[in-house]
Amino acid sequence: MRIGVTRLVVTAACFWWLTGCESSLKTTQLSESTGSDSQEIASSGPETTGTVTAIGSVPPENADASPIKSELLGGDPNDNLSLGKRHYREQNYGLAEKYFRHTVEAQPRTAEAWVGLAASYDRLRRFDLADRAYEQAIAILGPTPEILNNQGYSYMLRGDYKMARKKLTAAQSKDPDSQYIQSNLALLDEVVRKGKGIR
């Protein structure tokens, strides 16, 4: 029973973290993380460690864009996970990758770090490694709408719009009201219509 409750809490927390994939057509430089909409929900239990946070990304137009509060970064702003998030928000993807990787090496059941690592690899265009990191996050949490949403954005970055639509549609079927997923689907439609990839 405790494991089931833990998974429910982690899945709900993951919703707030992963909903942050790129979704705004009005942003000149789309990134999986601007850090402006980070939210965090603590999780506990034997299955996973740490918290699942929206590393952030471009939110839907009507989402709250309040600045990140320092308490949302966790107990220690200098631990590897917090440093990974900070460097990711600052678009230092190489350093973000380093700190997320150190986190998963030390705490392999930290889903948030796996997703951050995957997003960093996406930005470094190391999609083979991003896929592996997403697989690890799915092994911990299952195919949550948030992870599927991030994977959909990853496939958009690669120019694989068919797979992007498949992942985003799967995400939408699990969470039809998510504005982030809807925004990514709109972005995908725009990219396909204009015939221009995203960077």
Topology of helices and strands:
Elements: H1 2-18, E1 40-42, E2 51-53, H2 80-89, H3 93-106, H4 111-123, H5 127-141, H6 145-158, H7 161-174, H8 179-194
The CATH topology annotation reads as: Serine Threonine Protein Phosphatase 5, Tetratricopeptide repeat
Strand runs, count: 2
Low-confidence stretches: 4-59, 64-74
Return the CATH architecture. Answer: Alpha Horseshoe
- Secondary structure: helix percent: 55-70%
Q: What class would the helix/strand composition place it in?
A: mainly alpha
Q: What's the level 1 CATH class?
A: Mainly Alpha
On the 0 to 100 scale, the average pLDDT is 74
Strand and helix order: HEEHHHHHHH
Name the shape in a single word. globular
Number of helices: 8
What is the number of domains? 1
Radius of gyration: 15 Å
Beginning-to-end CA distance, first to last residue: 43 Å
Biggest sheet architecture: 2 strands, antiparallel
The CATH superfamily title: Tetratricopeptide repeat domain
Beta-strand residue fraction = under 5%
Strand order of the largest sheet: 1-2
Question: Would you give an account of this structure?
Answer:
- This protein has 199 residues and is mostly helical.
- It has a single domain, classed as Alpha Horseshoe (Serine Threonine Protein Phosphatase 5, Tetratricopeptide repeat), CATH 1.25.40.
- The chain is 57% helix and 3% strand.
- It has 8 helices and 2 strands, in the order αββααααααα.
- A two-stranded antiparallel sheet has the order 1-2.
- A hairpin with an 8-residue loop joins strand 1 and strand 2.
- Helix 3 runs antiparallel to helix 4 and helix 5 packs antiparallel against helix 6.
- The N and C termini lie far apart (43 Å).
